[in-house]
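The authors assume throughout that readers already know how a fold can be written as C-alpha cells. For illustration, here is how one protein appears when written out as sequence plus C-alpha cells:
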Amino acid sequence: MVPSAMAQTPDFGDDSSEWARDGECDDMRFIGPGMASVLNDEDRGHDATDCRVAFEQKRVTMRSEALQQRVVEARRIAWGDDEGAFANDGECDDMRFEGEAMTTTVLRVEDVQHDASDCRNAYQDGLIALRQ
C-alpha cells in the first residue's frame, strides 16, 4: 500500500517541467509505482498531465511532507550507479543502509554505491535510512 498524505484530489499544477508528458510522474509530492526514479525540486507542480493520469489510475498518491523532505535529503547522499550484481531488483543491497526495503541476502562490500536506484527509491519512500 502506498502511504498517503490526503485523500482529496491535489492541485496538479502545470506541464512546464522538462520531463512533462513522458509517462512518468516527476513531481516529488507524489509516491508510487507511477513515479520517475530521479526527482527534482524544480519539477514540483510542473508535471500535471503525467501525475494526474497516474493519480487517477491509482499508481501514485500524495506523499506526506515528511517523505517530501526525504526526497530533498536524498540529494546529499552519494548513490553511485546501478552496476551491482543485484541492482534494480526492488531491494537495497548497499550496506550503508538499514530498514524494511533491504535485501535479506548477505550484504557485500562490492555492492556499496552500486544499487543506486533501488536504494534511492527506498530512501525517498521512507523504507530505509542511513546506518548510524
User: Anything to note?
Assistant: The beta strands are 30-31, 61-62, 97-99, 128-130. The first strand starts at residue 30 and ends at 31. The chain is about 20% helix and 10% strand.
